[in-house]
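Before relying on records like the one below, remember that each one covers exactly one chain. Contacts with other chains, cofactors or solvent are not represented anywhere in the record.
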Amino acid sequence: MPYRSDLEARLARKVTRAVTEYELIEDGDRILIGLSGGKDSWALIQILDVLRVRAPIRFSLDTRLNPPAALRARAAGVVTMRS
């Protein structure tokens, strides 16, 4: 699965390096990510989802939007998982 852009590839390499160096994710982990609705939290979930597909280990992701972000997402017609 190729990366969609050079930026995505660079971010994925940096996140992979941090995950490996600090042993942040192990096989079978379930990761909960709190989303503020800002660009940085959306980038984090996107990169972790890309790595989830590509990683040699299996882990799952779940997200929660904080209440103001959930309200903005609903108002914009964005489908959210759970808030």
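Residues 71 and 79 are 11 Å apart (CA to CA).
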